[in-house]
């Protein structure tokens, strides 16, 4: 047992171990999702997060140690976001035809996401640092963390809130859109991207390519708009 413990201590300090663990957990989550025929509840990100959390807890591994190995995945968030330009280009004719309603929906969605999160937090008496961390929770992680740092929130807490927002959005968006009888995939995709950023966009692509393209538009433009308005609105409120 001592030899096994020594081996684990050595391996746990190697960045490659945690990068591999991250990829394996996501592959496991994606496999479960496919076996469940992409049911919204069987979200691969949610499953991967649960598996990784269980591993880190069971092994007593600090998050900082884990992130040293997993930061390559974090780095790839940027290129993955840029890669959304391909489906956007393929659906450019749809975007041009709906430019005005798209912009109106974007402004309404971004502002509502920010104000409702902060407003509910204020109603429950949350402290200021948590309120500031809540404000950018509907934007993609790299942008949300930057906004949180700028306005005085906690980048770590914001990252957690971003993941929770994305997972909840991806799980509920299809059921919600069906309940509201919204059948236009452009509207469904835009809503997913604005409200649930990258995880919602991934879910939209699983359902329909046009929905995915509009989700990508919503995610990107929402990140830009929130970065502009969040410091201003938070300055007015606090």
What is the arithmetic mean of pLDDT?
84
How many beta-strand runs?
0
Contiguous runs where pLDDT drops below 50 for at least 5 residues: none
Biggest sheet descriptor: none
Total helix count?
13
- Radius of gyration, rounded? 19 Å
Structural account:
- By secondary structure, the chain is mainly alpha-helical.
- The protein folds into two domains: 75 residues, no CATH class; 156 residues, no CATH class.
- Helix 2 packs across helix 3.
- The model has no long low-confidence stretch (mean pLDDT 84).
Précis, in short:
This protein is mainly α and 238 residues long. The chain has helices spanning 2-12, 15-35, 44-59, 63-75, 77-82, 85-90, 92-97, 99-123, 128-134, 141-151, 155-179, 185-207, 209-237.
Chart the SSEs and their pairings.
Blueprint: H1 2-12, H2 15-35, H3 44-59, H4 63-75, H5 77-82, H6 85-90, H7 92-97, H8 99-123, H9 128-134, H10 141-151, H11 155-179, H12 185-207, H13 209-237
Helix pairs in contact: 2-3, 2-4, 8-9, 8-12, 8-13, 10-11, 10-13, 11-12, 12-13
Give the tags:
single chain; 238 residues; 13 helices; 2 domains; mainly alpha
């Amino acid at each position: 047992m001592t030899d096994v413990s020594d081996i684990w201590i050595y391996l746990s300090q190697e960045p490659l171990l945690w990068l591999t663990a991250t990829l394996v957990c996501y592959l496991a989550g994606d496999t479960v999702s496919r076996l469940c025929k992409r049911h919204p509840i069987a979200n691969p990100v949610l499953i991967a997060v649960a598996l990784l959390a269980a591993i880190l807890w069971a092994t007593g591994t600090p998050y900082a140690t884990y992130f040293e190995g997993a930061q390559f995945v974090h780095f790839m968030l940027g290129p993955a976001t840029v890669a959304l330009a391909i489906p956007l280009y393929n659906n450019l004719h749809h975007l041009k035809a709906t430019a005005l309603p798209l912009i109106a929906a974007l402004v309404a969605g971004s502002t509502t996401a920010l104000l409702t999160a902060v407003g509910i937090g204020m109603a429950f008496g949350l402290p200021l640092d948590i309120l500031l961390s809540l404000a950018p929770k509907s934007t993609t992680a790299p942008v949300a963390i930057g906004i949180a740092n700028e306005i005085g929130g906690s980048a770590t807490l914001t990252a957690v809130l971003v993941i929770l927002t994305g997972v909840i959005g991806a799980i509920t968006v299809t059921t919600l859109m069906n309940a509201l009888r919204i059948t236009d995939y452009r509207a469904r995709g835009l809503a997913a991207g604005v409200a649930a950023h990258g995880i919602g966009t991934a879910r939209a692509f699983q359902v329909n390519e046009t929905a995915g393209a509009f989700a990508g538009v919503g995610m990107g433009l929402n990140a830009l708009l929130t970065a502009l308005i969040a410091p201003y609105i938070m300055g007015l409120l606090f």
